[in-house]
Amino acid sequence: MCGRYILSQAAMAERYFRVHGTPWSRSFNVAPTQQVPVVRMRVGKRVGETMRWGLIPYFANGEPPKFSTINARIETVETAASYKGPWLLAPM
Q1: Where are the domains of the chain?
Q2: Going residue by residue through the chain (92 aa), what tens digit of pLDDT does each one get?
Q3: Strand residue runs (E) in 1-92
Q4: Fewer CB within 10 Å: C terminus or N terminus of the chain?
């Protein structure tokens, strides 16, 4: 997985997901740990918000770790301390 992406079509995303008034803006260098756009369900409606890109493992007590947690390798996702908790809780 690449560690960066381009957000150049925020208006198109708003129309596609049927959300309006999002805090999204164009960016040509979106990187891990930045605030990134997401679409969530709130009270049965789609809402556009921004969230921090990356996983903060449960054992970090809410503090972002010093190591990157954006790329999970399939070979170790079930055993790596950073990912095994969320992996086990994920619906199958």
Answers
A1: 1-53, 54-92
A2: 567 778 888 888 888 888 877 778 888 888 888 888 889 888 888 888 888 888 787 778 888 777 777 777 788 878 887 777 777 766 65
A3: 5-7, 27-30, 35-42, 45-52
A4: C
Buried (b) or exposed (e) across 41-59, using 16+ Cβ within 10 A? eeeeeeebeeeebebebee
The CA-atom distances, in angstroms, between 6 and each of 2, 20, 26, 27, 49 are 11, 20, 8, 6, 17
Q: Can you say whether residue 31 is alpha, beta or left, with left for phi > 0 and alpha for psi between -120 and 50 degrees?
A: beta
For tokens 């619906």, name the residue: 91
